[in-house]
Amino acid sequence: MYSVIIVDDEPAVREGMNYLIDWEKAGFCVIDSAENGLEGLELIEKERPDLVITDIKMPGLNGLGMIKEAKKKESSSRFILLSGYSDFKYAQEAISYGAIDYLLKPIDENELLTVLKKVEQQLVEETRDKKNKKHFQSYLENQTLFSYIIHKERKDEINHLSDFSAFQLIKLIRKGEKLVLQDFVQICEKCIEDNYFLYTYGDSLFMLIAAHSEMKTDQLIAELKSDTRLKATISSVGSNVDDLPNLYGEIKFLESQRYFYPDTHVLTKQSINKKAEIDSLEKLIIKLKIAIKDNQKDEIEQIVDWCVDYFQATKQDSGIVKREWSMIFIECVSFLEESMQKPIKEIEKDKILSVVWKEDSLYQTAKFLKYVFYDFGRFFYQTNEKQDIIEDIKFYSEKNYHLNLSLKDLAQEFNYSQSYLGKKFKTDTGKSYHLYLDDLRLTRAKNLLKDKHLYIYEIAKMVGYSNYDYFHKKFKKKFSISPKEYQKKWRDGEQS
Questions:
Q1: Has residue 67 got a pLDDT over 70?
Q2: 436-448 burial, b for 16+ CB within 10 Å, e for fewer?
Q3: Beta-sheet pairing, 51-55 with 78-83
Q4: What are phi and psi for residue 313, nearest 5 degrees?
Q5: pLDDT for 205-228, tens place per residue?
Q6: Which fold is adopted by the domain 2-107?
Q7: For residue 289, what are the β-bridge partners?
Q8: CA–CA dist 368, 298 (Å, integer)
Q9: Alpha carbon of 267 to those of 52, 79, 170, 258, 351: distances in Å?
Q10: Annotation: CATH topology of 147-267
């Protein structure tokens, strides 16, 4: 909708123009009016309308003078003159100053619509020309910018970027398909609050985001992840223009790592280092031993996968990786032999190690060792099947119930995982360890309450409850009587 201002000293004309045609249907909207050239000039400066319809003869500054002054101030508004027959020469002069056309009073509806159609066509063409000029200018600027980013060809035209304090570079590619620039203009308009620059380079599209303060790209990354065919490589954040070639170098390095991360759609430094940051290889071996001892197949598989991530992140020579795989295997074999007090034949060890050294794929080695460690876990289970760890836990708990016991403590004491002990205890006893420990403590407390020399708060601490109110609540819930009432009845000879 294009905006219109009407300038005429006759109120009837100003009012009548509003109802002469359906302005909205014609693609225009009358936003204001003025009764002379001075008021009209103020409105033009303030509202910057697309079109001004003005009378020629008005008191003070007339229509022609208003147009001249508006042009001096570089107004982009278009003008239509209203005139009588006697003013025809003025209308011709106004056209020489850039007015589009003139209409004779009284105004004919069809003539006005014809002129408005002419104005609309000019405005559409102007908008298209501006857009094309902007796109061309943007293309030239982006070409200069990315020549610096990719080829380090620095030019003065990019110095305006020095105003920004945060930069992030993104490379986008969709296998077998050339990316359409306009599609990503729409994504950027939707997701990015800061400035952005786009550039196509072969089948790839590069996106540079420049911010004055904190970089905000969460919404953009979520949008990119939603397209599963698209692969994005995202640099870290640079702080000045001089960092831009380094960001491109980081992009190239990350791209070289896609061999190790074929299923990662959005690749960043964090995504290729996250597993290595979680655990060292030594910690992974400890976890692997516990998973083998607990015969936890899913955990064994996950830990071996973490080892793969560790090797990917450290980017070592394949010979070093095979040596470390061998070390992991030997550590687990030694742990198995020590725990079971039963050696494994050297020939069996050598067979497995030879496979490790012959494999030429990191993933195939991991897959092979998973099955080896599954077998270790089954061996542990079969050997320990007759040993009841739950009875050991009960015995330990009966000796130490006064301490602040937990499944975590027991897992450390017996060298099992906490989750495994919790599940096994509940399966074998029908109750959780926490409930079992409460029953044990409360039964001991019941016996101690028979001792008339002990205070109730002392008994609570003796059986492992540091909080008296908590002990009182637990005791009453289990025996349907408070500790004090139970003690009194016992002393009175009413409790057996």
A1: yes
A2: bbbebbbebbbeb
A3: parallel
A4: -70, -40
A5: 888 888 888 888 888 888 888 888
A6: Rossmann fold (3.40.50)
A7: none
A8: 15
A9: 55, 56, 10, 8, 38
A10: Alpha-Beta Plaits (3.30.70)
Q: Which CATH number fits domain 389-491: 1.10.10.60, 3.40.30.10, 3.10.150.10, 3.50.50.60?
A: 1.10.10.60
- Do the Cβ atoms of 382 and 320 come closer than 8 Å? no
The CA distance from 432 to 245, in Å, is: 59
> What is the percentage of the chain residues whose pLDDT exceeds 70?
91
Residue 451 has pLDDT above 90, yes or no: no
CB-based contact 244:169 (threshold 8 Å): yes
Whether residue 385 is predicted with pLDDT greater than 60 in this model: the reply is no
- Tell me the residue type at 345: K
Residue 276 pLDDT greater than 50, yes or no: no
CA dist., res. 389 & res. 47, Å (int): 85
Asked if the model's pLDDT at residue 386 lies above 50, the reply is no
Structure tokens at 474: 């637990």
Q: Which helix (H) or strand (E) holds 209?
A: strand 204-211
d(CA 131, CA 120): 16
- Is 60 exceeded by the pLDDT of residue 96? yes
- For helices 418-429 and 407-414, the axis angle rounded to 10 degrees is 110
CA-wise closest residue to 416 among 295, 334, 258: 295
**Domain limits, the chain:** 2-107, 147-267, 279-384, 389-491
Contact yes or no for 142/199 (Cβ under 8 A): yes
Structure tokens at 409: 């403590």
Q: Which helix (H) or strand (E) holds 346?
A: helix 346-358
- CB neighbour class for 144 (10 Å; exposed up to 12, middle 13-18, buried from 19): middle
Consecutive H or E run containing 377: helix 362-384
Coil vs helix vs strand at 78? strand
- Under DSSP, the state recorded for 85 is G
Residues paired with residue 369 on neighbouring β-strands, in sequence order: none
Extract the tokens encoding 206: 């590069």
What is the token pair recorded at 214?
């904190």
> What average pLDDT does the structure give for the chain?
84
Alpha-carbon gap, residue 59 to 9, rounded angstroms = 8
Half-sphere exposure of 379 toward its Cβ, with a 13 Å CA cutoff?
A: 19
10 Å Cβ neighbour count for 275?
18
| Residue pair 369/356 in contact by the 8 Å Cβ criterion | yes
Element (H, E) at 34: strand 28-34
Give pLDDT, residue 411.
83
DSSP 48: -
Indicate the residue type of 447.
Answer: N
